[in-house]
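Supplementary Methods S3. Input chains for the assembly prediction are listed below.
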Amino acid sequence: MQLPSSFLNSLEGLPGYDPVLFEAAHLQAAPITSIRINPAKKSDLSFSLTPVPWAQMGSYVSPRPSFTFDPNFHAGAYYVQEASSMLLEQVFLQSGLSNQPIRALDLCAAPGGKATHLHSLLAPGSLLVANEVIRSRTGLLRDNMIKWGADNVIVTQNDPAHFEKLPGYFDWITLDAPCSGSGLFRKDHDAIASWTAGQVSHCALRQQRILQAAWKVLKPGGVLFYATCSYSAAENEEIAEWFINEYGAIFMAIQLDSSWGVIETTNGYRCWPHHVLGEGFFFTCFQKPNTAAPIERAFRTEKNKQIKKSVDFSSLVEWIDLDGMDVTEMGGQLMAFPKAMQADLQIIQSAIHPVYAGVRIGEWMRDKLIPDHALALSTHLSSVVEHLPLDYSQAIAYLQRKEIKAATSTKGWMVAAYQGLPLGWLNVLTGRINNYYPKGLRILKEHL
Ligand code: SAM
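Predicted structure tokens for the full assembly:
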């Protein structure tokens, strides 16, 4: 692995940088693999786990298993996430916002690593808006939030500037900025060839634009977590300095155990691969001064025309535990969303572009429900829905969308389950079981 000399030269003098150790870390043979367990889905994982010290649910996994061929991965039992990124947990727990219901926004959320992490840390009654501007990546974000089983998440597809319609709305913002990506060189060798100083400057300008938008949406007193997976000061310390000087953002110092190897730098923290068991990462955290006048503006909450109650929802109890949830109809689909956050949903629908919210229950056709995949993966799935337990090879065949051969006396809709965790829907007919695993999610490879 040959790192560009212009890149290496640009790192000289940065806190924690050591050219010999840095290059040696890039020659390390086995890449580090880590996962974060979903506390909402109890599972029995078969691989060898070593805790990531800064994240309660984080673990290193060695050797790297085939996640594609692990049914628990598809059931949302865990998320495969780079360990340094999990330092978000320390910032959130020290932000003063983890013990109260809040409105949180992840502005650059796809594929959903930090959004699923934050979701697991939020106090009950909190709302998470997970946004991704790039349309082709929004579907992946939605699918990952569905897999996580979340009910209090709205997935949006908006440019950060669109959020100006929601001034001062959010208590917490995660801004994991698009960046030049040098921190991931060990995992993404193609990124090495495309690295240029010009790309760093381009990313820095874009980071400033996104921060400007984020600041307007943050409540006075609210907290913004900013991170990149770049080593370049222009995207990290220099951005932090610009932000403090231009906007009066208050840098919040975070207490970190010195044994973790995270290096304190000017207005932020650096993870170097020769100090931390993880990839390159920079993070910092700012508070918006509380002196700003509170936002008086009443947000528009007019009813979205798409939403109307037109179904007798009482029969839904056979499918979904509706405790604390309201059911609405959206584009022909029934969906459940926390009652306490209906006003937020309406405000967000009037202001920006949600592509998914709450739990999609399914389609109501001729007084019958055609259940949606999201319901099977949701923590609200009713306990009266019957499970068809699958063994490992049946579960893989199910995830490949193949025909399932299994004995059951039940007829109709059942969830296919592996070690107690739902994978999706099956419809049992006489002599045949129809596999309803979504085509777009199926495993395409053959299992060796
Ligand atoms: N937070 C994600 C996670 O933990 O899984 C990773 C986010 S990635 C570092 C940055 C994201 O910003 C990408 O999904 C990218 O599509 C998005 N992005 C690209 N250009 C953007 C822009 N101009 N404004 C906002 N987001 C942008």
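The chain is about 25% helix and 25% strand. The chain has three domains: 84-287, 298-385, 386-448.
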